[in-house]
Amino acid sequence: MSVSRMLLLAGMLALAACDDTPDPPTPETSAPPAEQHRAAPMVDDAPATVEQPAVIGFHGFGPARFGQDQEQVRMSWGRPLREGGSTSDSCYYLFREPQPDNGGFGIGFMIVDGKFARYDVDMEQFAAPGDIKVGATLDQLRETYADRITEQPHKYAPDWLYVIVAPEDGSDARLVFEVNEEQMVTSWRIGVPPAVFYVEGCA
Hints:
This protein is of the alpha+beta class. The chain contains 3 helices and 11 strands. The longest helix has 16 residues, at about 5-20.
């Protein structure tokens, strides 16, 4: 082999020996394999979904609590309300507008001494705590509320009843059903004493 060929071969071997640069590292931002994109399973200590408070309850109506002023009731209802049903300056109702076509009032909010004290319902649109509506039977009341009810004779109709329900939390508010001679619920109301026990609205 000639000297020139030997020199050329030696140079090529030296160049190859110097080219030992490692492959570039995989960037940390590289996307993982598709199977690694699966959502992580739910665990027992995952944050629970916060339940919204019921609109109708022993606390009041929506965010309007018993004891607050009528402005809170109006904001909670979110639609026009008119004053009516008053027997004195200290007690009156806020009724929905427009009134139902069935001759009833639908729902009315009682204000006593400037404070929200109770609300009355005489239509099936709204359900009382326990999912009882106008038209339910006395047997349904007894089954739903069990040992939390008290039955009393109606003040004016001898064959009617008041069925009074105490809340589970032991608070002062009460749920009062009026039950007719056919043992059917005709209306109900929730409020705080003494207003919730008024038998003629504000009287």
